[in-house]
Amino acid sequence: MRLRSLLFVPGDRPERMEKALGLGADALILDLEDSVSLANKAIARDAVRAFVGRKPGGPALFVRINPLDSALAADDLAAVAGLPLAGITLPKAEGSTSIDDLTARLPGDYAILPIASETPRAVFTLGSYAGARLAGLTWGAEDLPAAIGAASSREADGSYTDPYKVVRALTLFGAHAAGVPAIETVYPDFRDLDGLAAYAARARRDGFTGMMAIHPSQIAVINTAFTPSADEIAHARAVVNAFAANPGAGVLQLDGRMIDAPHLKAAQRLLALVD
């Protein structure tokens, strides 16, 4: 399952869910949490169940339930029972304990995509996800500042303040430590596609393999950012072929530059994404 772009869609808007099938996202996250008012939770559950139940194919489908410590989670999980979902998106996740709790309650063999940084406690559990049944690991920059009384997670230019740079980095390394895709958080200004392109490019540079989206206009930009170019693929194949032709070599020269084991590993990782 390739997860370059994951688009949030409100669960109480069936017309948007239908439209989202053809927008090019690798996955849809059908939302029962933040984008749905308390009054519409039951409507959203019914709409999501009806939609997933008749979906013929297309992007992978996840459902974001409400937090496990809420009174809403049990009804959310009952609503998704038996549906052909790729997985469950878990907000307010707090490490392997939360994953074990959800797994025990899950009415099916679903992968889990934790949003793993939304509480202060969660930050200290980002290295605990190894061995869990995960689709990936992602983070958020909105709930955590609200939880600690911070004015914002961002500087005036939109970049993250130092505490949230730390959380982003810990999520990135936590995902790789667990051996699962690292998914970058959303870019809130959906009108600023140039800013999104730069943000997504930095994410891929840093080791993220995909990103969540809040608006259809963001999908193409995100997919492009997380798709290796033809030149990148050709270079990666050249690196792999060079080592294959020189078994046992520790360091080689390619196009006037030295390459060694880390370059080989990076090339293999890139080709694995493509293949």
Brief summary:
This protein has eleven helices and ten strands. With 275 residues, the chain is of the alpha/beta class.
Please provide a written account of the structure:
It contains 11 helices and 10 strands. The protein is of the alpha/beta class. A hairpin with a 2-residue loop joins strand 9 and strand 10. Helix 2 (41-54) packs parallel to helix 3 (73-80) and helix 10 crosses helix 11 (261-274). The chain starts with a strand and ends with a helix.
Q: Which percent band covers the strand fraction? A: 5-15%
Global shape: globular
What is the succession of H and E elements? EHEHEHEHEHEHHEHEHHEEH
Helix/strand/pairing category: alpha/beta
Largest sheet: 8 strands, parallel
The low-confidence runs, each spanning 5 or more residues with pLDDT under 50, are none
Number of strands: 10
**Backbone CA Rg:** 20 Å
Percent helix range? 40-55%
Q: Round the mean pLDDT to the nearest integer and report it.
A: 94
Side-by-side strand order of the widest sheet: 5-4-3-2-1-8-7-6
The rounded distance between the terminal residues' Cα atoms is: 11 Å
- State the helix count: 11
Can you tag this structure with a few keywords?
10 strands; 43% helix; alpha/beta; eight-stranded parallel sheet
Write the layout of secondary structure elements.
Elements (H helix, E strand, L loop, with lengths): L4 E6 L3 H7 L6 E5 L9 H14 L5 E5 L8 H8 L6 E4 L5 H10 L5 E4 L5 H4 L13 E2 L4 H6 L13 H17 L3 E3 L8 H14 L3 E4 L5 H7 L4 H16 L6 E3 L2 E3 L1 H14 L1
Parallel strand pairs: 1-2, 1-8, 2-3, 3-4, 4-5, 6-7, 7-8
Antiparallel strand pairs: 9-10
